[in-house]
Amino acid sequence: MAAPTLDPPADAAPVRSRRPAPLLVRVSVAAGAGLLLFATFPPRPLWWLAPVAYALLFASVRHVRARRGFLLGFLFGLAFLLPLLSWTGGMVGAVPWMALCVFEALFFGLAGAAMAVVSRLRVAALWAATVWVGVEALRGRVPFGGLPWGRAGFGQPEGLFLPTASIGGVPLLSFVTVLAGFALAEIVRRLVRREVRTVAAPAVLLVLALVAGPVAAVVPATVDGPERTVTIAAVQGNVPRLGLEFNAQRRAVLDNHVRVTEQLAADIAAGRQPQPDVVIWPENSSDIDPFRNADAAAEISQAAAVVRAPILVGSVLVNADGTTSNSVLLWDPVKGPVARNDKRRIQPFGEYMPWRSFFRLFSSWVDRAGNFVPGPGPGVLDAAGIPVGITICWEVAFDDLVADSVDAGATVLAVPSNNATFGLSEMTYQQLAMSRIRSVEHDRSSIVATTSGVSAAITPDGTVTASTGQFVPGTLVERTVLRDTTTLASRLRSVPEWVLTAVGVLAVGAAVLAGRRRQRRTVTDSAPAGSAEPPVREDEDG
């Protein structure tokens, strides 16, 4: 990869000779791009508009100072995140929702500042795309474990770019998506300015981004064992009513899942459904701890016995020290509970409250946060000889957790979730998109089981073969392919992300050093003879 250098004078001179775009225009473009990006995210199948949104963002931050790039990136992020994360407001109110979006938009501001810095380099679109991946890596880790929601790759559950996830995971999927947009911005800019001779470099980048998916699609995964097919059922029992209040009706939720499972058993006995090898219940399907409540245990045992298959039961367990665990129990139809997988990465501000006394100053909702603790293990349960990778609800957003399950031998991925708290919002569709991408990334089928929808069965190529509606009871019984393969993404894990991040950091460093050398030359060349304090030229758009 060639070292980044400043644009040559032939390219830079026309920029200095033209009047820079007014700040109001740049602000409008950046904010509009953020709204457009939101419109490309599920459930809307407008993945192909995402590069346009990123093109507008890059056009707004190109050749501005870092502080102005920060402002533009921040406004882009805010316009994108406010509607994307609006479902959080239904849970905690408007003030915490807006505070979350403002804080997360700071990372987009950081990306905008860094992109502005590298925009003066040759092949600027390439370096800007690596910067974007680096900031996504940071946002997905800090603070409190990070919030990966809204990564560029998570808006691409279908379409041209998706197969790149099998090569470099979500980071590479994000990279090619934003690279296509940034390269498009450069092509349009140079054509508008009639700089046809300089279009070749960004055109090559755009072509590389567009062909990356088709090329990745033909790269085979390493086969480690024979493929087989089993029958897996997902039960969606539904909740008594929308909103947080459903937690006060825990027994009704458990009863619903038992009732739907018994109906499934009746359909099996009548020949309307095939016999499943394993049944998956969603997260919080039994908020009543069956180890402490004999009635709950008896109900689950009855359901497992009548359906004649082990059930993965999402449950809330009270630990000996008074803390709680968000767990999936493997409930055998004969032996009862035989194994347990606890949620490994718990949700701040929901399952636990960091800095509780501080955040209580902003909202009394903090006292509704739980006292959950994370559990150990790689996230795999062996259900009737089927190694099932478990990522509970928002765990599916974290690259390392899914990769750990696959490394531990999972041949199918299960995503038990509880989306009832978020009503009829788009949250469930955003999360479903992540499961589709994980299937492609690791060449695994995925089964999404939710309390209230959307539950779904997903093939290894990311196709949804069956799904339920929202807030209706339902059952999915699917012939599911189990694969023991290793994709390049599974093998490399976080290596592509760290490589792209390192390149982005080096590009920013190179741009800063080159800018200082250029400024020194400008000051020296423009200093009046004998002047002790030569005038300093401001950057354009400054």
Which descriptors would you attach to this protein?
2 domains, six-stranded mixed sheet, elongated, 46% helix, alpha/beta, 14 strands, Nitrilase/N-carbamoyl-D-aminoacid amidohydrolase, single chain, 542 residues
Could you characterize the architecture of this molecule?
The structure is a single chain. This protein is α/β, with parallel strands linked by helices and 542 residues long. It folds into 2 domains: 9-220 and 493-526, no CATH class; 223-484, Carbon-nitrogen hydrolase (Nitrilase/N-carbamoyl-D-aminoacid amidohydrolase, 4-Layer Sandwich). The chain is 46% helix and 14% strand. The chain contains 16 helices and 14 strands. It has helices at 9-17, 23-40, 50-61, 66-84, 86-92, 94-118, 124-139, 165-192, 200-217, 250-269, 294-307, 356-359, 399-407, 427-442, 488-492, 495-526, and strands spanning 222-223, 228-236, 278-280, 311-318, 324-332, 336-342, 380-383, 386-390, 412-417, 445-450, 456-458, 464-467, 474-482, 485-486. A hairpin with a 5-residue loop joins β11 (456-458) and β12 (464-467). The two termini are 31 Å apart.
